[in-house]
Amino acid sequence: MQMLAEGVADIATIDAVSWVLAQRYEPAAETLQVIGFSEPTPCLPMISGVSRYAGQISQSLMRGLATLDESLKADLLLEGLVERNVSDYLFLSPRLTGAMQKHALTEVSVPATV
């Protein structure tokens, strides 16, 4: 956002949560203008390596969130977790396919990080 405010960058895509947080805490956000919105989409999924522990991981995260001070949760826009199915993300597939066709991509790869 700083680069936008300084004129180094002309345009950016910013997710809704980051935008609200920037409006609260980033002075540069006051100088920016929203020019459009995309369709609402679920947030990024939490991915774990062992699916048999998914329930335990979710419960642990919920317990951890419940221990946080209410004002901290409000400041960080933390309301809880929503359990979703893979099918909740399938509507993104046509968007990805369209973008790949538009840019003549045959595959999308994401480098592994450690």
Which characteristics define this entry?
114 residues; mainly alpha; flat
Mean pLDDT: 84
Question: Termini distance?
Answer: 28 Å
Number of strands: 0
**Uncertain parts:** none
| Strand residue content | under 5%
Largest sheet: none
Order of helices and strands: HHHHH
Rg = 18 Å
Total number of helices: 5
List the helices and strands and how they pair.
Layout: H1 2-5, H2 16-25, H3 54-66, H4 70-75, H5 92-102
Walkthrough of the structure:
- Helix content is about 40%, strand content about 0%.
- It has 5 helices and no strands.
- The radius of gyration is 18 Å and the shape is flat.
- The relative contact order is 0.09.
Question: Summed up, what is this model?
Answer:
The protein contains five helices and no strands.
